[in-house]
Write a sequence for this structure.
């Protein structure tokens, strides 16, 4: 489900989540592909039985609004940043992305996502197109020109579910 307002963010935040729920980091380069992130979330809401339909894909604008408002940040368990750092600078945004990822059941497609989340073990890392740097940290890299547009989200969502099944079975 795409998240375009703080009200939708609050609804997601109020649902009960299991500890350690996974997340997806979708790397699309400099420009987010919000429609693909939203389609992945919709696909997982249909096929991931453990999520109880609670997958979301927030827009960069919602992430910025959360970072800019101390009350929204506190809802995620974040304290205010020191005065030397603004909450909406890259460091503040990365802090919000990490807090959202800890909550789980979220598809993050944000320019700061890679810097914030590449080392998080609960994250499934997918890229559309070749990543700027070495792509060895990604679980899957797809060439979007090689697939019909409507196939990308199901391929990534199903790959995530396979990864999750084998990770949990190990």
């Amino acid at each position: 489900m795409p998240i375009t307002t703080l009200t939708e963010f609050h609804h997601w935040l109020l649902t009960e989540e299991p500890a350690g729920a996974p997340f997806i980091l979708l790397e699309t380069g400099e420009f987010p592909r919000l429609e693909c992130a939203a389609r992945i979330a919709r696909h997982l809401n249909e096929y991931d039985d453990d999520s109880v339909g609670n997958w979301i894909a927030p827009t960069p604008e919602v992430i910025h609004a959360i970072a800019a408002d101390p009350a929204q940040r506190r809802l995620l368990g974040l304290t205010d940043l020191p005065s030397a750092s603004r909450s909406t600078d890259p460091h503040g945004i990365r802090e919000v992305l990490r807090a959202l990822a800890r909550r789980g059941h979220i598809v993050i497609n944000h320019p700061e996502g890679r810097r914030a989340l590449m080392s998080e073990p609960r994250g499934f890392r997918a890229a559309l197109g070749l990543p700027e740097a070495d792509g060895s940290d990604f679980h899957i890299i797809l060439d979007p020109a090689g697939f019909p547009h409507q196939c990308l989200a199901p391929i990534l969502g199903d790959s995530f579910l396979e990864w999750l099944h084998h990770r949990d079975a190990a």
